[in-house]
Amino acid sequence: MAGSPDSKQDHPEDTVLHLQSYLRGGTSSLLSALPTVIVFPVYKIVFRQQIHNSPVRHAVGQLCKEGPVKLYRGVAPPLLMRTLNGTLLFGLQDTLFRQISLSSPHLLSAALLPALAGFGAGMVEAMVFTPFERVQNVLQNGQNDRQLPSMRSILARLKEQRVQHGFYRAFLPITARNALGSSLYFGLKDPVRGVVAGQGLSPLASSFISGTLTSMAISLALYPLSVLVANMQAQVGGEAKGAVACWRGLWKSRHRSVLLLYRGGSLVILRSCITWGITTAIYDRQEKPSS
Fold first, then answer.
1. Are 36 and 109 in contact, with CB atoms under 8 Å apart?
2. Quick one: pLDDT band at residue 291, thresholds 50, 70, 90?
3. What is the pLDDT of residues 272-286, one digit of tens each?
4. Which one is the CATH code of 12-290: 1.10.1610.10, 1.10.600.10, 2.40.160.20, 1.50.40.10?
5. Would you say the C-alpha torsion 223, 228, 233, 234 has a positive or negative sign?
6. Fewest CB within a 10 Å sphere: which of 26, 93, 180, 183?
7. How many whole angstroms separate alpha carbon 169 and alpha carbon 167?
8. How far apart are CA 174 and CA 225, in angstroms?
9. What Å distances lie between residue 70 and 46, 73, 127, 135, CA to CA?
10. What is the mean predicted confidence (pLDDT) over 187-194?
């Protein structure tokens, strides 16, 4: 994705090439949607651990008790998000990278440009997809099944709320998580791929391993923010506390234990291995012919 600034030439036909990064990002994310469906029950187990602080066996027991019909309740938003997210994230990062390279070619080190562009792309991503994540978290919370049995009822209830309490609940921690995560991903992906490729592996395998290792590290580092977001967004109505107050309550509910705060973190690693490893490999494979 990210070559040196000097390799980005400002020709008229570049407009078409810029749009290709959006297409490649959407395609790679769409093709990784099947693994998203397969591992969705795993994600749902993680979500229950995040909001109820329960061990794996209790979370699995909750899902078994609810039955297979409700097992995939809430799967639509992440599927839609996967495709749109890839389109926006990869495409916008590439656009920002090119613009920064052309406008300030000597201001920053070339190694930092992908990370800076990723940071900006992550901020825009948060603005666009926070409502999707809000609906997804409400759907996955089994305590909402009676009062909010359908997506239509959830959308109607959220519309009644103020924007900061409704669709954009937990916007600040989501922005921090997405901006930092995207910055780290695009800043580390290519260097890690280069190191792996140096061990004699094929380009496809190198990209897969690079995406896997990078996403695992990011997921673990930013997992507490994901737990905070899940707890802030799981309910509709009630007292709307700020991010700091919610974090204090969350930390207290976990008995000030990092181990309890990271409950479910191992399953996040599994999900990251599958989805981002595949997405990275497909994107890099598509990018190679036009690089």
1. no
2. very low
3. 788 888 889 988 888
4. 1.50.40.10
5. positive
6. 180
7. 6
8. 8
9. 16, 5, 29, 16
10. 95
Confidence bin at 103 (pLDDT 50/70/90): confident
Residue 182 carries which side chain, given as an amino acid letter? S
Please say whether the beta carbons of 281 and 211 come within 8 A. yes
* CA–CA gap between residue 195 and residue 267 (Å, rounded): 26
Q: In angstroms, how far is CA 276 from the centroid of its own chain?
A: 9
Give CA torsion, residues 63, 64, 66, 68, to 10 deg: 100
Between 76 and 254, the more confident residue is 254
Tokens of 281: 């490999």
Distance CA 73, CA 143 (A): 13
Q: How far apart are the first and last CA of the chain?
A: 8
- Residue type at 290 in one-letter notation: S
State the pLDDT at residue 232. Answer: 94
Residue tagged 């507490």 (tokens): 224
Q: Could you give the dihedral angle defined by the CA atoms of residues 211, 214, 217 and 221, in that order, rounded to the nearest 10 degrees?
A: -110
Question: How far apart (Å, rounded) are the C-alpha atoms in residues 4 and 8?
Answer: 7
Number of residues written out for the chain: 291
Which residue has better confidence, 249 or 49? 249
